[in-house]
Design a protein that fits this description.
GO terms for molecular function: NADP binding; oxidoreductase activity; proton-translocating NAD(P)+ transhydrogenase activity. The protein is of the alpha/beta class. It has 11 helices and 19 strands. The structure holds nicotinamide-adenine-dinucleotide.
Length: 374
């Protein structure tokens, strides 16, 4: 079983899908590992560290030659896979709802695309879940980047020259990223409040010592919904939410938005008129900016100033923490493949529950129900 890792080719992608730690672990399972030269540079992992761990470090296309499995952070174009074995597996993020052409190309080329975003949200797959590991770091980075842009301090400080007031931070969307944003803002000393459409998050917000701010007049999503994800809300709910946000947001210094709906553009949570009610110097970080944005006017990788409020957001937030993000991503991939490793067969053999969930293409066809049902 030969596993290959290519240098990421997408613009701004600094992560890598394997680390020296997981190289050793894959070799211990009986695999050989090939890493493209320079693959770890963006994550501060030199080629020597990969060789010392036992990987063959090879230039360009040689890395992928004869591979049974190719690992990636963002799935490579099919052209970069030439030389891999027929029917090779490619485990990476595919962004399948937005990358239909890429998925089709994988089918046509006979590769088996395994989309890590489609990992089911079940207990045994938690350690394989790249969305969680990357969102967690992104939630942290959003607060740190906002603190950096904010011209004031986060914690209350009593000084001889007078008191510095604590920043008020509002987190919208309390999934994995939102929870980490709340925890980080609390640690920095901000007064934190948070909201979500899923009522199950109320208790989680309070357990982190933050204040829940919820629409009470219209019912939100009870329980965990489908796999714990949100859906699009009714017009009535959206109106009630907009009113609630309008009255709350004017008093906030920092707003972190994280709301996402799988397979849909991000819901719009903050309008330009609402931004206009905020104090000049306030900062909004739109973690959903690459998915269409939660905030009117936000632009990926730009600082947009509207009504004196700075609106920021990165196109790839976890890539701003490339070393930790790669370490966790690489472990997710290792946990996934090793959980299914069949010692007799000397390769992973996927089961239906997880295999069918993540497999996009097989035998020349697109086979994933979430794509074929569209
Ligand atoms: P996500 O990234 O899809 O969305 C972020 C948050 O935005 C969610 O909490 C969502 O409810 C919220 N949101 C959506 N529309 C909104 C709106 N209009 N207004 C306000 N908030 C809105 O979510 P996620 O971080 O992937 O997590 C979703 C859930 O899945 C969580 O409950 C999480 O604990 C659970 N989860 C389970 C597992 C597992 O069991 N393996 C793994 C990861 C996450």
């Amino acid at each position: 079983m030969r596993i290959a890792v290519l240098k990421e080719r997408a613009a701004g992608e600094s992560r890598v899908a394997m680390t020296p730690e997981t190289v050793k672990k894959f070799i211990a399972l009986g695999a050989t590992v090939a890493v493209e030269e320079g693959a770890g540079a963006g994550a501060s992992i030199p080629d020597e560290a990969f060789s010392e761990a036992g990987a063959e470090v090879l230039a360009g296309k040689k890395a992928v030659a004869g591979a049974d499995i190719v690992l990636g952070v963002q799935a490579p174009e099919v052209a970069a896979l030439s030389g891999a074995k027929d029917g090779a597996w490619v485990a990476a993020t595919f962004d399948p709802f937005r990358n239909g052409e890429l998925v089709e190309a994988y089918a046509k080329a006979g590769f088996e695309a395994l989309s890590m975003e489609f990992m089911p949200r079940i207990t045994r797959a938690q350690s394989m879940d790249v969305l969680s590991s990357q969102s967690n770091l992104a939630g942290y980075k959003a607060v740190i980047a906002s603190a950096d842009e904010y011209g004031r301090a986060f914690p209350m400080m009593m000084t001889a020259a007078g008191t510095v007031q604590a920043a008020k931070c509002f987190v919208m969307g309390v999934g994995v990223a939102g929870l980490q944003a709340i925890a980080t803002a609390k640690r920095l000393g901000a007064q934190v409040s948070a909201t979500d459409v899923r009522s199950a998050t109320k208790e989680q917000i309070m357990s982190l010592g933050a204040k829940p701010v919820f629409v009470e007049s219209v019912e939100g999503i009870e329980g965990e919904g489908s796999g714990g994800y949100a859906t699009e809300m009714s017009e009535e709910y959206q109106k009630a939410q907009a009113e609630l946000v309008s009255s709350h947001i004017a008093k906030q210094d920092i707003v972190i938005t994280t709301a996402l709906i799988p397979g849909r553009p991000a819901p719009r949570l903050i309008s330009d008129a609402q931004i206009a009610t905020m104090k000049p110097g306030s900062v909004i970080f739109d973690l959903a900016v690459a998915r269409g944005g939660n905030v009117e006017g936000s632009k990926p990788d730009e600082t947009v100033v509207k009504h004196g409020v700075k609106i920021i957001g990165f196109s790839n937030t976890s890539a701003h923490l490339a070393a930790d993000a790669s370490a966790l991503f690489a472990r997710n991939l290792y946990n996934f493949l090793s959980a299914f490793w069949d010692q007799d067969a000397g390769k992973p053999v996927l089961d239906e529950e997880i295999g069918d969930a993540v497999r996009l293409t097989q035998g020349g066809k697109v086979v994933n129900e979430r794509l074929t049902a569209q």
